[in-house]
Amino acid sequence: MENNQVMKEKVIAKLPSPERRRKGPYALIECFQKIPCNPCYTSCKFGAVKEFNDINDLPEIDYDKCTGCGLCQAVCPGLAIFVIDETYSNEKSLIKIPYEYLPVPSVGDIVKGYDRDGNHVSDVEVKQVRKFKNNTHLVNVAVEKKLEHDLRGIAVRTESRDGEWKPESNKLGECIVCRCEDISMEEIKNQIALGKTTVKEIKLATRGSMGPCQGKTCLPIILKELSKATGKSIEELESPNYRQPIKPVKIGKLVD
Asked: Per residue in 137-151, pLDDT tens?
């Protein structure tokens, strides 16, 4: 998996023009894997996400049409879309972040801000919270301009008895490993505790890596958990076999 710096460079390379960024909020789709997924396109009411020629195409944005409304964020299964408003103030930008944990932060809260690798980069203030029925909420936070392309996640603050900051217990919300099949980290760890020591066993027990993306997101996480449990390196653990077709094809193609 690519680290924060590599991803940051890819994101900066696809930024809209300086003129467009001075006009107001814009969406950034940090999706660089070709997988069968297009809800960003189907949800956009302004036609800002360009039409896909193939369901596996990488999404592209027409920034002349993008308003930064965030509707595409709320439906993105990979939580890979962020809205940036560089016009918020001279010192800070506003970042709209998709958030699926509990508790949901409130306006005025000071939360921990993290980069794509999970490193703490800054404490930030929540400026707005927009709640959706699908529980993918959009949280606006104000961040220093120099960090606007680093900060990509938040965690709600709680105080322990000794006064130190601690993240909320994960009992308040499940950590989803496989979004295609809705498999939680708890399910993966339970199967490992039951004696499953290979990816194939986990796959058969939970359907992990059997969704449309074929494990592009969940497989590295499953391998990491198996590596910790078995003491084997990730290279030693066998990945599952994939059967054709690797990507969705039209029925007509199969009869040609």
From this structure: 999 999 999 999 999
User: CA torsion, points 114, 116, 118, 122, in degrees to nearest 10?
Assistant: -20
Residue 60, classed as helix, strand or coil, is: coil
217: nearest Cα among 41, 81, 14, 32: 32
- What are the backbone dihedrals phi and psi of residue 190, each rounded to the nearest 5 degrees, phi first? -65, -40
Question: Domains of the chain, with CATH numbers?
Answer: 4-159 (no CATH), 174-230 (1.10.10.1100)
Return d(Cα 26, Cα 200) in angstroms, integer. 42
Please report which helix (H) or strand (E) contains residue 187, including its range: helix 185-193
- Whether the model pTM is above 0.85: no
Token duo for residue 156: 């709600």
Lookup result for tokens 């006009």: 23
Burial 104-120 (b: 16+ CB within 10 A, else e): bbeeebebbbbbbeeee
For residue 242, give both structure tokens.
Answer: 């994939």
Q: Is the dihedral of CA 226, 174, 80, 208 positive or negative?
A: positive
Identify the H or E element spanning 153.
Answer: strand 153-155
57 φ/ψ angles, rounded to the nearest 5 degrees: -65, 150
Quick: pLDDT tens for 63-81: 999 999 999 999 998 899 9
Contact (CB, 8 A) for 158 and 167: yes
Q: What is the DSSP letter of 228?
A: H
Q: Find where tokens 């965030």 sit.
A: 70
The string of pLDDT tens digits covering residues 107-116 is 999 999 999 8
Q: Does residue 103 have a cis bond before it (omega within 30 degrees)?
A: yes
Closest CA relative to residue 134, chosen from 39, 29, 27: 39
The DSSP 8-state label assigned to residue 241 in this structure reads P
